[in-house]
Amino acid sequence: MSFLMTVILVVQMLSALAMIGLILVQHGKGADMGAAFGSGGSGSLFGATGGANFLSRTTSVLAAVFFVCTLLLAYLGNNRPAASTGSVLEGAAVTAPAPAAPAVDNSTASQIPGNAPAAPAK
């Protein structure tokens, strides 16, 4: 499960970085007004309108990939086994270790009569 989440996270990061780059390359709506009067309209890479269509469609595909990856990560991150229906504290109480038994004192001082260790207070 961890490998799958890592792959989805890498795809999400790459799509986010590609979206950021594509959005920064695109022209705003006000840039078309300057091109209408002849400034910089002929020097585009994709032609007059081909670049806008290609960049906007690629951005929308990357946005869809990013959104699907986000939903998958949220689902996989929140996916829990069906057996754990109680609270976190109830699960911790069940799995808590048992208290350790008192240690037996085998020293020579405890073997002398009258030097028995005191019983632990309860």
Automatic annotation (TrEMBL):
Subcellular localization is given as: Cell membrane
Location (main, coarse): membrane
What's the protein's topology in the membrane? Multi-pass membrane protein
Q: Check the record and name the InterPro entries matching this protein.
A: SecG (IPR004692)
What name is this protein filed under? Protein-export membrane protein SecG
**What start and end residues bound the annotated signal peptide?**
none
Q: Which residues form a coiled coil?
A: none
Matching Pfam families? SecG
Q: What's this protein's family per the entry?
A: Belongs to the SecG family.
Transmembrane annotation, as ranges:
54-76
Q: Among its keywords, does the record have Transport?
A: yes
Q: What keywords tag this UniProt record?
A: Cell membrane, Membrane, Protein transport, Translocation, Transmembrane, Transmembrane helix, Transport
Q: Where is this region: Disordered?
A: 100-122
Q: Which domain of life is it from?
A: Bacteria
- Its function? Involved in protein export. Participates in an early event of protein translocation.
